[in-house]
Specification:
The chain has 149 residues and is mostly beta strands. The protein has strands spanning 2-5, 10-14, 42-43, 51-56, 60-65, 78-79, 93-99, 104-109, 112-116, 133-134, 144-148.
């Protein structure tokens, strides 16, 4: 399985086989809203306790169970994190990653980074499509996110 997401805050899970095509020109697997872009796909290893962490460039983080995402072959997907209409111009998703039980979320803000372990992510837990909580003030200009094992 693969997690497909866009910077507009939408995403879904698909099978790798659904991304393959015979056509030379390819096919659109992820519909991206105007003014947005696709995020790099994230390969998943099926496990019971996987969670999705969605981080925006203004420092909002939302963590929810992977089971809340639908399995689609292609399309726009469902809302991962709520970005209000008035803020869609300046706020976008920087990363959507999948965390296992022992994984750590590393958030980069300029030259600084912060590691968030499972216990540190508790304030950011929620259900899919919520707004998410803000990171501390020093980490509100997020440039990228990654998973450390």
């Amino acid at each position: 399985p693969v997690l497909m997401a866009s910077a507009a805050g939408y995403g879904f899970i698909t099978r790798f086989g659904d991304l393959l095509t015979r056509n030379k020109k390819g096919k659109a697997a992820l519909s991206v809203p105007k003014g947005s872009e696709a995020l790099p796909p994230v390969a998943l290893v099926e496990s019971a306790d996987l969670r999705v962490a969605v981080v925006t460039n203004v420092g909002r983080v939302l963590v929810f169970p992977l089971a809340e995402l639908p399995r689609l072959s292609r399309g726009k997907g469902v809302k991962l994190i709520n970005i209000p209409r008035s803020k869609r111009e300046e706020e976008q998703v920087v990363g959507a990653v999948v965390l296992g039980e022992k994984d750590t979320l590393r958030i980069h803000a300029g030259k600084h980074y912060r590691n968030l372990k499972r216990a540190d992510l508790e304030p950011f837990q929620g259900t899919r499509a919520l707004r998410g909580n803000l990171l501390p003030r020093a980490f509100r200009r997020v440039s990228r996110v990654e998973v450390c094992s």
